[in-house]
Design goal:
The chain is α/β, with parallel strands linked by helices. Helix content is 37%, strand content 16%. It folds into 2 domains: 68 residues, no CATH class; 269 residues, Alpha/Beta hydrolase fold, catalytic domain (Rossmann fold), CATH 3.40.50.1820. The strands form 2 sheets. Strands 1-2-6-5-7-8-9-10 form an 8-stranded mixed beta sheet, sandwiched between helices. Strands 3-4 form a two-stranded antiparallel sheet. The termini are far apart. Keywords: Hydrolase, Signal.
């Protein structure tokens, strides 16, 4: 299996647009980034779902959409979890930083008497990937005792026919999924988001509330500076062709057309705007070498009582997307400390609007 870097489409778009003088081309590539996610070769869709213990389901009704569901209570002792052995090469690694890194994920089979599910974790993928990019995370969280669900955000995967929403439209889809799963299972819901997915999750918490926990992996900060840094780091030639200001203006214009702006997409800014009692217990996983998510904005989250901030010193932004043994241990430990914080009957459903 292989991962493709999520920044490629933006960089190609920028280079081509400068050659053709067409800013519209950039806009289309930002709004329709595709899904350079995980590719598992040699298996069909049915076999892929079996490997990660997932079911293909659908949110029904008008404008329904497909999603993947992991039924933790259906795990049996003969289930063999997939293993990950991934090599990451850090180009232009800073002095003292090993340029070749190896990441492993080794999960144990479930016990014979697997307990009832503790809750539901909904996973939201990063920009320019798809739901398959969080399949390892899905199976690991099932083995920790949680039902899981994930779906393709707009502009990605099976939802790539519609443009990236940067918020509103995906919040409505997420709310429909949460409502459906709560009605069926009567369990607390935790949101788990990676980069752009963390921004969508934070926006949902600010708009709807009624969430029992939040896990954010390398959460997106201000979109425009992050996208500019990603584009420049992936293609140094850009610095010779265009100015930072040109890049930033182009990105911001796209956001304006989507009725949002860079600051409104920042996960830390969203969380810092909320009242203390409106935030669920939150785990932030950040990379010490991450130059895409603004470290100062991430650091500011440590002032929030509900937030636990965990740093992985030698990881950049893309490396933080890899769910390995270290990330699994950190997530498992945090979930273990917060298992009993809320029961379904004690949900915050009525808090989302009244407290803001």
């Amino acid at each position: 299996m292989r991962f493709r870097k999520p920044s490629g489409t933006i960089c190609i778009a920028l280079l081509l647009s400068m050659a053709s003088g067409c800013a519209h081309f950039i806009e289309q590539q930002i709004l329709y980034p595709g899904d350079g996610g995980m590719v598992v070769e040699g298996v069909n869709d049915r076999e892929l779902l079996e490997i990660y213990h997932l079911q293909a389901r659908e949110v029904t009704g008008q404008q329904g959409f497909p999603f993947y569901f992991g039924d933790a209570e259906a795990l049996t002792a003969d289930f063999m979890p997939p293993k990950m052995d991934f090599t990451f090469r850090y180009s232009n690694a800073p002095k003292g930083i090993e340029p070749v890194r190896k990441y492993k994920l080794e999960l144990e089979s479930p016990p014979k008497d697997f307990p009832s599910a503790k809750g539901i974790i909904i996973l939201l993928h990063s920009y320019s990937t798809n739901a398959q990019s969080v399949f390892f995370d899905n199976v690991a969280l099932q083995l920790q005792g949680y039902h899981t669900a994930c779906f393709d955000l707009l502009g990605h995967g099976q939802a790539k026919q519609k443009p990236v929403s940067f918020g509103a439209a995906d919040l409505k889809r997420l709310h429909r999924l949460i409502t459906t799963l709560k009605q069926q299972y009567q369990l607390p819901v935790i949101l788990y988001g990676k980069s752009y997915g963390a921004s969508i999750a934070a926006q949902y918490i600010a708009s709807y509330g009624s969430i029992s926990g939040f896990i954010a992996v390398a959460p997106m900060t201000d979109f425009t500076p992050a996208a500019t840094r990603m584009a420049k780091s992936s293609s140094p030639l850009l610095t010779k062709l265009v100015s930072d200001q040109w890049l930033q203006t182009t990105f911001e214009n796209v956001l304006t057309e989507r009725q949002t702006n860079s600051r409104q997409l920042s996960t830390p800014r969203i969380l810092l705007r909320q009242t203390t009692d409106s935030l669920p217990p939150t785990l932030i996983l950040a990379g010490g070498l991450d130059k895409i998510s603004d470290p100062e904005q991430i650091k500011a989250l440590a002032t929030i009582d509900a937030v636990e901030l965990r740093h992985f010193d030698n990881r950049g932004h893309v490396e933080m997307m890899i769910y390995d043994n270290q990330v699994n241990d950190a997530v498992n430990r945090w979930l273990g400390n917060h298992e009993a914080i809320k029961k379904p009957s004690d949900d915050r459903a009525g808090l989302s609007n009244s407290s803001r």
